[in-house]
UniProtKB/TrEMBL annotation:
Residues 16-45 have a biased composition (Low complexity). GO terms for biological process: protein targeting to mitochondrion. Residues 1-72 are annotated as: Disordered. GO terms for molecular function: nascent polypeptide-associated complex binding. Residues 55-72 have a biased composition (Basic and acidic residues). The chain crosses the membrane at residues 116-134, 154-174. This is Mitochondrial outer membrane protein OM14 C-terminal domain-containing protein.
Amino acid sequence: MSYAEVASKGPKQTPEEAAAPQPPQIVTDDSTSTSSLVDVDTPSVRTVPSDYAEQEVKTDTQAARIEREEAEKKARAKAEAVRAEADLAKKKAKSKAKKADSWLTKRFENMGDGPAGALAAANLIAVIGLSGWLGFKAWGLYERGRLSWKDVGLGLGVLGAVGAVEGAFTNYLYKAKGRGKGQ
């Protein structure tokens, strides 16, 4: 069955429903409005002063730009002062670190070969002992099935921190002994 057959069986349209819609109507107005034109006789029209060409700042936009440029210059000068202060603080911190470094190096330099060797051996034994103890504890946790990645990470963190301290300690010791023998 086609659409036309189905539509023919339904209720009939009224002539108003069957008619096409009316196109929109255009309203024409032939009168021309002069309200948007400027009347030159009114006081709202401004003239340029006679000294306009000699003025340093001629427009509001130019004045705003000059103010903005001055503010930017002040901000740059302030940033430069802050940067200079930061550089000075960095130099002071570097000087203090160097002073502490030289103090520690002098202490190791003044130490004789016997005590320095004993200190190095004690340091090595302490690191090996700590590593062995951490390994023993980890093995015990592993056997009980309670060893987790958190425990492994903690143990490696402790070993890393001890290794870093030992490295710095050994560096100062060797630096001091190298200076002491070279002089």
